[in-house]
Amino acid sequence: MDAATLTYDTLRFVEFEDFPETSEPVWILGKEYNALTGGTGPTSDTGWGCMLRCGQMILGEALVCRHLGRDWRWAKGQKQREEYISLLNAFIDKKDSYYSIHQIAQMGVGEGKPIGQWYGPNTVAQVLKKLAVFDTWSKVVVHVAMDNTVVIEEIKRLCMPWLDAAGAYGESEGVGELNGCLEGACAMAEEETALWRPLVLLIPLRLGLSDINDAYIDTLKQCFMLPQSLGVIGGKPNSAHYFIGYVGEELIYLDPHTTQPAVEPSEDSQVPDETYHCQHPPCRMHICELDPSIAAGFFCRTEDEFDDWCMRIRRLSCNRGTLPMFELVDSQPSHMVSVDTLNLTPDFSDSDRLERFFDSEDEEFEILSL
User: Fold this and answer.
1) Active site residue 255
2) Which one of 45, 50, 143, 223 is the catalytic residue?
3) Where is each Peptidase C54 catalytic domain found (predicted)?
């Protein structure tokens, strides 16, 4: 027994060497394995999943606003609404959950990111956009604004799909009515006739070359002050954080780098939810330490909220001494090429053609200058 105890204690101090990455087959006890996948795939997202988790956090905040309201706050031990339990189940670490780490990682393969590879803000934004299509419960529109440009017309077509069916977009008199209902919308499915589908707007940006340009700092701060703000995903090279605000010259952020066991629902379908919430003060870092590659997020539950957001963004762009992080336009500029023009399929299977638009690490962002 003493020898066994000694051996066990000794092992605790041994540094185990990672298995070599090789394409050669690995044979163990009569069974063939692949060293690159371990035979069963990753059992943890440690070392590669931080940006994926940040994507879950920013979308989770959007869905809280969608189903529970922006003023909702979590309290430990408090009985929660059914919508809250459904929201947790959408993110739980199971293959069939809408926004599980499994779904995000697998969908990322279509964006040219093998499972286990680190994501950038743009890639995770594109993946969330694609996954949201299958979320029939939340019915949100996730729109990723590319080329530093938010096109109002494009967003309104996405959030109000009945406009195209009615042939009414852009008419000065608005949408006509026929027999007491919206013309063209009557024949559409019920879920498509909502006047506005809640919008999750993600804007990938590059605010400098290797460091953030000082001219963007005040604008970035002001974005955190907007009532529609979902925060920012970004961080430092290969270390992602979810930024939720600022104080003085410091950004306030949540850090996903604490590895925790996967949560298992109980027999009554209740989910132990303590690990879903931050129970200690959030972290802070100086704003100048921020990597310039980020994605800013905003949530607009109604058309009025989106119109209000547009008004506020235009006011910010008029402030002297600050540099806008992105451009807000009424219709698509002639120099922009839409995804529809490329005839890309919804699953974006043609990764080579899509790389120039959606690659996260080498994207050719336009660097705005003074």
Assistant:
1) yes
2) 50
3) 37-311
How far is 102 from 96, CA to CA, in rounded Å? Answer: 8
Distance, in Å, from the CA atom of 247 to the CA atom of 221, rounded to the nearest integer, reads: 9
Q: Which of 135, 186, 218, 255 is catalytic?
A: 255
Residue range 8-41, pLDDT digits in tens: 444 444 455 666 767 788 888 888 777 666 656 7
Strands of the chain (E only): list them: 25-28, 31-34, 141-144, 149-151, 177-178, 181-182, 199-206, 229-236, 239-247, 250-254, 283-286, 293-300, 327-329
Using a 10 angstrom Cβ sphere, with 0-12 exposed, 13-18 middle and 19 or more buried, the burial of residue 170 is exposed
Q: Is 257 a catalytic residue?
A: yes
Distance CA 45, CA 101 (A): 8
Instruction: Point out the catalytic residue in the list 257, 273, 308, 310.
Output: 257
d(CA 259, CA 236): 19
Place of tokens 């920013």: 58
Catalytic site includes residue 50: yes
